[in-house]
Each structure stands twice: as structure tokens, then as C-alpha cells.
Amino acid sequence: MTAACLPHLNVERIGPAGRETVVLVHGIATDNLTSYYFTVAPALAAAGYSVMMYDQRGHGRSERPPTGYRLEHFTQDLAALLDRPDITGPVHLVGNSFGGTVALDFALCHPDRIASVLVVESEPPTDAWAAKMSGLLAGSAHRLRDERTLPWIERTYGRHEARLVRWATPLLHGTTIAEDIAASRIPAEERWRDLEVPVCAVYGEYSDLAAMAPRLERLLPDCRTRQVAGHGHSVLVGTPHTVGPLMLDWVGTGHRAKAART
């Protein structure tokens, strides 16, 4: 994939220029950079960090190519953003859900460009992850072809959730994202054991992904996990007053104390 193939990405910057940079990577399909803009990004900027948010390819106000949605394409987009001249020094990466998988994959490919990684409700890319994600995306696309689906979502989950799903429909119906995720490049498991980047993983108490915490602590050389009581997968949006201080502590000094191995 060459630079000419990279899509146009919508990027937002807040906070002081020339300071330590925190890059926020959102989730897939029904997500975009606003999930950070209205939650934790202002607190990071107020603490003196230069904060970069962007809409991933196919999302928000970024370009939506018909193909090119393997994990490595998202990782290459992030690499291109970090080539900008206003990004100086290693950055802190924060990723929510699928964005955390992108952040972990980027750290594995470019560890020298990373100061730390914090992921929220995320997992590293594996064959099982790719199959699960592809199935979820394909299933969502199929259900949205039923004209009764969106009205049901609005009645059950509210107008905001229905609007997010409506925004995701062109991505699910007009691109090869489900097939591409299934065909993603998956790193060999032994590579993770050599990753020297500090990682913090945050999970909701009631999330299906909470069981990932002990596996990550065993797999990664420098990994800490945190659990947010009373919440499921929507930790970032559901409790920013809890996740925000966790992020501030992590990018400030928390990432510097290497996790003790058991």
C-alpha cells in the first residue's frame, strides 16, 4: 500500500502545540472521533497534552473507499498521520474497542514511535478476533437491510443510537469491510512476548471482554489491567469521569513503572 492509496482522513487537534502528544483512535462502524471529543479529550488537553483525534477510514468525515479495510490498512493510516511534521517524539496511543486493536497492532509494528498504549475494551488481533469481527459486521449489514431494524433500534435504545447506526450503514453496505477484516494480517503470538511498550487495558466489569485481562497480563511483558465496576462494553462513553482520570494518570506517570511479572 503506497502513500498515494491512503484516503483523506478528518483530523482534529486540541490542546497546546509542541507538547507531549496523545493520539485517540476510535472504534468501528458506529463510532467516530466525537466519542472522544465529548468525553476524555478536553481533560487531556486541559492537562497540557497535545491531543490528536481522527476519523478512521470509512468513518465520520473521512474518505470512504469501497475496499481496503484490513487491519493493516488502518495501522498504515495511523503511521501516515504520525509522519506529520507537527508530531515530535514518541506518542501515547489510546484506543477504544477496535481502535485499541489498531493501537496494539501499531505498537507491535512501530514500538520506537510509542511512549505508551492504553486500550479500552479491546483485544489484540488474532484469527479468532478477525473471524468474530467479520461475522459481527456482516450480521449487522444483513440486519440493516430489513427496514424494520432502524425503527426498532430507536424505540429500544433511543434516537442517538439509531443515528449512529444510520451513519454506519453506508460503510457496512457500500464497502468490503466485513470481508477485509476477515483477511487481515495476524501477527504471530510470540511477537507479543517481545513487545517492550507499556500497555494498560481497561475493561467494564460486565463486558464479555473482561476475561481478556489475565491473558493480556500473561502475554505482554509490560501490561497492567483495570476494571470499571458496574459497566459493560460502553465504558468510554458510559463513564468518562472514571476513564478520564485513568488516562491522565497513565500518560502522566503510570506507564513508567514497569508491571511486575508473576
UniProtKB/TrEMBL annotation:
Transmembrane segments: none annotated. One of its GO terms (molecular function) is aminopeptidase activity. The lineage of its organism: Bacteria, Bacillati, Actinomycetota, Actinomycetes, Kitasatosporales. Pfam families: Abhydrolase_1. Keywords: Hydrolase. Belongs to the peptidase S33 family. One of its GO terms (biological process) is proteolysis. The keyword Manganese does not apply. This is Alpha/beta fold hydrolase.
